[in-house]
Amino acid sequence: MTMKILVPVKRVVDANVRVRIGSAGTVDTTGLKMSLNPFDECAVEQALRLREAGIASSVTVLTCGLPVCQDVLRTALAMGADDAVLIDTASASPDSLGIARLLHAFMITDAGADAYGLVLCGKQAIDDDIGGVAAMLAALLGWPQALNASAIEVAGRGWLVTCGDDAGTATWRLDGPAVVSADLRLADPRRVTLPSIVKAKQKPLRTLDAATYSFPLEAQTRIVEMSEPAVRQPGIKVADTAALLGAIGSQRLFQNVGA
Amino acid sequence: MSHYDFIVIGAGVIGASVAHHLATLGAGRVLVVDRGTIGAGTTSQSSGLLRTHYSVRQNVELARSSWHAFNNFAAYVDDDEASCGLVKCGYMICAPEGDKLAPLQASLDAQRGMGIEVQLLSRNEARERLPIAHFDDAALIGYEPEAGFADAYLVATGFARSARRRGVKFMENTTVTGLVRDGRRVVGIETSAGKFSCGTLISTQNIWTPELAGWIGVPLPVKPERHTVLALECDAAPYTFSMPAFKDLGSPGMLYFRSYGGSQMLVSEGVVGETLNAPETEQGDISLDYVGEVGAQVAERFTAYEMAGLASSWTGVYDVTPDWNPVLGPVGDIEGLVAGFGFSGHGFKLSPGIGKILAQHALGQPTDVALAPYALDRFTSGALLLGKYGSGAVS
């Protein structure tokens, strides 16, 4: 099967860092540990497994952002991706739709011997938690989509994808090329090895200028205000079991059970 | 305003140790305040190495008394359930021909002169203890059996629990905003939870010591420096708990190593790190290039690790002074104040001993180890405590 996989990824503040709102009213990430978005890391891993199983011919990782975002592309290349693309957005700060449009534009102009048969990405980025790009890209491409996937296998000319939702899990059959977004359960990411870090430096990393795709990248959403989450209130001590039951009862903790 | 005989600022491993020793030495009412929680600042980022190998003699003395505490931690804090997480795997240090050889020889001789067991190993003997490394270039290999590593967070909380049991009050998430002064004398602190008066104030503020400098108007030479630690995994050559911690003076980064979790390798550079503009313990960025560079150094000594995987990586922050040794004792002409800062990446292994001598000094008792060499005025008098290996935490 001659098919490529595209894995769009995002550079985010590391999951172990506690971000704070700076004096400018925004999150200042200068000097903080940055990482490949953990959901995207699972997507990269799954894509590599599909390539290693002979289902795909190559894995391309792509990110939209400033040149500094190349570091997460290098991480993905060190994991084993074949090539990488940075779409340099310069001063623009596109929102989910802007990113989806850039990905769409890239995919229809990035002609190669093999076509993309699968877009596999994280179900959300851990910084904004929006999770909009996969669905928007599927709409722009007119491809079927399966979000929050915990398992994927090839099925004829399409895919069989197991997804989690509020009611449990559902298995979807997607015909033809598809967009799938990864849950953390999809695939446990492999470790970057020292030789692969060296090898990654030799792999192709293209930089494209977002301005060459002539559509406006301004975000259609605007952040009005950022604030720290409410400080957790300390617990209370109760005298006995009766008081405990009373305290729990007054909290209406279980009102939505079964909803 | 509540009054305490002693107030300690900082509940890291040093502050908690001071509190424990104040309590056991009969200090009366003691309060410890911390901006965060016990042991959650730079303490929690320590690699935890324990050794008595130092080129500065006073440090050997402090490290020896501290090792005794770590090696008998439950008895030391008089709590059967207390543990410092000690892994007594020994400590090996090697140097090739070159500029590190003479200092290593001198340090090993000095340790032996002080009655510390130090063995000189042949290359083969070294390989028996650490079979995942080679020693083809080693001109001198020293081995201390009474050494290893422990868990700095457990030690901080262990000392804090002991202090609490003896009546010391801890206030966490309480920020000190300034001092209460009576002329040249410190008589209390102002905090986010109100004012408290004290007979003596002990500052163990680590990278936040510049705040103290601002309050007292005395320059204190300490800066925060970030260091990176990697955990590598190599199935072909696991670094087990029975293998000694290891210092490679022959590597460009003067790397130190130890087992991490019984199979992975913890490795970090023992040279100057990245100076931060402001004190903070948040995780810093670690580039893949840096991992590659350190990994290449690792593979020079541990050949199988050329195929190793990066299991995890993190950063920790040192409070570094110009000579990479701490300042202990009074500062300037301020009365009622005792300071301990500038541990320069090797405070944990000295923390029991330092906590004790700071407590002894605050109580007006003779100190087990002389404080004078650690005085602040060494930076003006020129009597620096320079380690023989150059700048770095081996000191």
Helix content of chain A: 25-40%
Secondary structure category of chain B:
alpha+beta
Which percent band covers the strand fraction of chain B?
25-35%
Discrete helix count of chain B: 10
Helix and strand run of chain A: EEEHEHEHEHEEEEHEH
Strand order in the largest sheet of chain A: 9-8-7-10-6-1-4-5-11
What's the SSE pattern of chain B? EHEEHHEHEHEEHEEEEHEEEEEHEEEHH
> What structural class is derived from the secondary structure elements of chain A?
alpha/beta
The low-pLDDT segments of chain A are none
Distance between the termini of chain A: 45 Å
Average predicted confidence as pLDDT of chain B: 96
Give a written overview of the molecule.
The complex is a heterodimer of chains A (259) and B (395). Chain A contains six helices and eleven strands. Chain A is of the alpha/beta class. In chain A, helix 2 (70-79) packs across helix 5 (194-200) and helix 3 (96-109) packs across helix 4 (133-141). Chain A is globular and about 75 Å long. The mean pLDDT of chain A is 92. Chain B is an alpha+beta fold and 395 residues long. In chain B, the strands form three sheets. In chain B, strands 4, 5, 6, 12, 13, 14, 15, 16 and 17 form a nine-stranded mixed beta sheet that branches. In chain B, strands 1, 2, 8, 9, 10, 11, 18 and 19 form an eight-stranded mixed beta sheet that branches. In chain B, helix 1 runs parallel beside helix 6, helix 1 (13-24) packs across helix 9 (351-362) and helix 2 packs across helix 9. The model of chain B has no long low-confidence stretch (mean pLDDT 96). The A-B interface holds A 14, 16-18, 31-34, 71, 74-75, 78, 190-195, 197-198, 200 and B 232-233, 276, 282-289, 291-292, 295-296, 298-299, 305-311, 314-315.
